[in-house]
Amino acid sequence: MTAPLWTAAGAAGATGGTATADWQANGVSIDTRTIRPGDLFVALKAARDGHDFVAQALDKGAAAALVSHVPEGVAPDAPLLIVPDVLKGLEDLGRAARARSDARVIGITGSVGKTSTKEMLRTVLSGQGRTHAAEASYNNHWGVPLTLARMPADTDFAVIEIGMNHPGEIAPLSQLARPHVVMVTTVAAAHLEAFDSLEGIAREKASIADGLEPGGVAVLNGDISTSAILQDRARANGARVSLFGEGPQNDHRAEKITLLDTTTVVQGQAGDMPVLFKVRAAGRHFAVNGMGVIAVVDALGLDCGLAAADIARWAPPAGRGARERIALDAVEEDQTFELIDDAFNANPTSMVAAFEVLAAARTDDGKGRVSRGRRIAILGDMLELGPDEIAMHADLAGLPWMAQLDRVHCVGPLMRHLHNALPDRLRGEWQEQAEQMVARVRHLVDAGDVVLVKGSKGSRVSLVVDALRKLGQSARSSEKGTG
């Protein structure tokens, strides 16, 4: 029989709180929309006060609720764990879960690629032991302790994603997770509104090494201009440094990267061992981070050959480069276009990677109204870039991959500067808001096209992705309606 994740006594001991009843929980939840029977509901205060949803959580079968007081409408003898501060209580649960486990812990940060690399590591490590990893992008002040609090005691490997928006956020989260290995995917122009320079971002990313366990390893991108900042901080914390990337200075290096339509083939060296692996997605960034994953596996003393083979089992999640075929006609099966959904985040570095993927994509000619398939980009604003944000948007027009594109449509006030800088042959539509572009999607795409949608989450270009998907749903609805 599987042991419970938390008991009333264990959770009370971890938090110093008071349990009003005896209970056992098999999971931890902060959202009544996704809560499962047997979960411990954590009543965090965010946009809404979680205490307002405790009664609903208990009605849905929650084992208990972590609260700072008995909520209105909840009986005093309901199964509760009462603590002075709910967020601190969650941190205490995370700290206790980390302490009771013998898991090898990996902490990941970086301006680009944290979540996709975390999922790649989850896939690879799952082939070599019981692996626990953060859901979605749970990488902030509540996401990290929640991930730890959910970790079963018998976990072999835990992959903890750690993010930041402002200085001083990463080190405390790393110190909570106490990783044996840390990885920094890259340092790029993101969240520059909160930092004075790229070097400032690098210093914050480098602080992930502050939580390393004694004898820990820092797996760092050796190609970037700020790599020395990362390496110096890691060594100051007593870490062994392992570099990954494309250049000859790296311990784990991708020496040849071949981008195919939907696959990337990587040849290189993992220390002294030649390595060849395939990524089930096109993208140089996926290839480089895949080499970083192998470096992490090597740092853990695991089987790098098995890891290289298992990378092919990973595919990018929705919003981060996932690809899908959308049918435009219910009868003619070849009337499709390909959608690249990269609508979760954007900065100049990730835009370069996305354009390279789009430029390598294979279109289908002679399928639609247009004589040949096109490579189309629909781009939303890149946010939090600081005082140079206008130039950063306009400069995208000069990227070499633009030569392989056919049309660029822009959404948002910042992307207007790219729109103005584009040559006539590329300049598509500009709309101030994503909702306005949604109304135009049927006129922007055709069978045979490959369509990239990318922007910061706040640009809401995910609405455009949804609208493009619905073109396929409309085709299916038409098929059902015939007869």
TrEMBL record:
Keywords: ATP-binding, Cell cycle, Cell division, Cell shape, Cell wall biogenesis/degradation, Cytoplasm, Ligase, Nucleotide-binding, Peptidoglycan synthesis. One of its GO terms (cellular component) is cytoplasm. Its main location: cytoplasm. Residues 26-82 form the Mur ligase N-terminal catalytic domain. ATP binds at G110, S111, V112, G113, K114, T115, S116. It holds the Pfam family Mur_ligase. One of its GO terms (biological process) is regulation of cell shape. It catalyses: D-alanyl-D-alanine + UDP-N-acetyl-alpha-D-muramoyl-L-alanyl-gamma-D-glutamyl-meso-2,6-diaminopimelate + ATP = UDP-N-acetyl-alpha-D-muramoyl-L-alanyl-gamma-D-glutamyl-meso-2,6-diaminopimeloyl-D-alanyl-D-alanine + ADP + phosphate + H(+). InterPro entries: Mur-like_cat_sf (IPR036565), Mur_ligase_C (IPR004101), Mur_ligase_C_dom_sf (IPR036615), Mur_ligase_cen (IPR013221), Mur_ligase_N (IPR000713), MurCDEF_CellWall_CoF430Synth (IPR051046), MurE/MurF_N (IPR035911), UDP-N-AcMur_synth (IPR005863). Its EC number is 6.3.2.10. Residues 108-297 form the Mur ligase central domain. Pathway: Cell wall biogenesis; peptidoglycan biosynthesis. It is an enzyme of class 6 (ligase). It is found in: Cytoplasm. Residues 331-456 form the Mur ligase C-terminal domain. GO terms for molecular function: ATP binding; UDP-N-acetylmuramoyl-tripeptide-D-alanyl-D-alanine ligase activity; UDP-N-acetylmuramoylalanyl-D-glutamyl-2,6-diaminopimelate-D-alanyl-D-alanine ligase activity. PANTHER family: UDP-N-ACETYLMURAMOYL-TRIPEPTIDE--D-ALANYL-D-ALANINE LIGASE. Involved in cell wall formation. Catalyzes the final step in the synthesis of UDP-N-acetylmuramoyl-pentapeptide, the precursor of murein. Belongs to the MurCDEF family. MurF subfamily. This is UDP-N-acetylmuramoyl-tripeptide--D-alanyl-D-alanine ligase. It comes from Lutimaribacter pacificus. The lineage of its organism: Bacteria, Pseudomonadati, Pseudomonadota, Alphaproteobacteria, Rhodobacterales. The gene is murF.
